[in-house]
Design brief:
The protein is an all-alpha fold. It has helices spanning about 5-35, 45-75, 85-115, 120-150.
Length: about 150
């Protein structure tokens, strides 16, 4: 792999990790602040923003992160499943993705559909989204640690 391509892939990998994990963390923080204002603001607007930023930054960043990481590993001759730190990071990403698709996306749909008249429904959905979201953040942080520390190398 040429040094220019290697540098471009590394840059893409780091930027996509920042966008991906940064969006996860920042969305968790600002949505909690917005949820506190739900009596004076339409929380469904926050739910729409959560969905939009998830598709752009979480899905888009995660896709670029995976593609650039795969290209970097292949370009360096590293077996993806045979390299412990890459395998561990990918498994952590899979865990976070399963939580996102299986529990967070349905909670987001509930938050979008619910009306202020059914506050308990979207309050429950937001709490579930918050707990599962922060839980799903832990494997992402572990994946970053794997990329930096390279355990098993």
């Amino acid at each position: 792999m040429s040094p220019t391509l290697d540098a471009a892939l590394k840059t893409t990998h780091v930027v996509s990790a920042v966008l991906f994990v940064g969006n996860v963390i920042v969305t968790g923080v600002w949505s909690a602040l917005f949820f506190r204002l739900r009596d004076t603001h339409d929380f469904r607007a926050a739910a729409r923003a959560i969905v939009m930023t998830d598709w752009v930054f979480t899905f888009g960043g995660g896709t670029l992160l995976t593609a650039s990481g795969t290209a970097l590993a292949m370009g360096r001759g590293l077996p993806i499943w045979g390299t412990p730190w890459i395998r561990q990071a990918l498994l952590a990403l899979v865990v976070a993705t399963v939580l996102w698709l299986g529990l967070l996306v349905p909670a987001q749909r509930t938050m979008l559909r619910a009306t202020p008249a059914i506050e308990t429904e979207w309050t429950r959905a937001f709490r579930r989204w918050t707990v599962v979201g922060w839980t799903a953040t832990a494997p992402l942080l572990y994946a970053i640690w794997c990329m930096v520390a390279k355990p098993g190398l």
